[in-house]
Specification:
Layout (H helix, E strand, L loop, with lengths): L1 H87 L5 H26 L5 H24 L2
Helix pairs in contact: 1-2, 1-3, 2-3
Keywords: Signal
Protein name: Lipoprotein
Length: 150
């Protein structure tokens, strides 16, 4: 029996020691898991900030695009109105009428080119905007010339 008592005593001492080792190991695993959670939380926060910045950029670009489209549509509306008024206006002599027809034809070509540029999605946006601005300047010049012929 003394051997049995010693076995029981050793078992009683080893069980809490093994339980303590298990608790230490679980505590280490818990700390490692918490470290991974903290790291992922930081990564998530950074990703959310990047997404918010990208969303803001997208809204800015969308607003700029909308503004340019409105400007183009407004320009086309004014141009159509002026062309209609110019077609109805009577010119004083043949030279003025010929010049007016030439300017009207150029305005029509510029308007078509502006519409084509506005619809072009393959062109470099900066180059496209530069060409649009040049066409707008040309149209403005021709409209000024037309306004002088009355």
């Amino acid at each position: 029996m003394p051997a049995q008592a010693i076995s029981i005593t050793l078992a009683c001492l080893l069980i809490p020691a093994l339980a303590g080792c298990t608790l230490v190991q679980q505590n280490q695993q818990l700390n490692a898991t918490q470290g991974r959670i903290d790291e992922k939380t930081v990564q998530l926060t950074q990703a959310q900030k990047e997404q918010a910045a990208l969303q803001e950029q997208m809204q800015t670009v969308s607003a700029e695009l909308h503004e340019k489209q409105v400007s183009n549509k407004e320009l086309e509306r004014r141009l159509a109105k002026l062309q209609a008024a110019n077609q109805q206006a009577a010119t004083d002599n043949d030279a003025q009428r010929a010049r007016k027809r030439k300017l009207d034809a150029e305005l029509t070509q510029d308007r078509a080119a502006l519409a084509a540029l506005s619809q072009n999605t393959t062109m470099n946006p900066a180059e496209q905007q530069q060409k649009i601005d040049q066409l707008k300047a040309d149209i403005k010049k021709r409209l000024e010339l037309l306004s002088q012929i009355k």
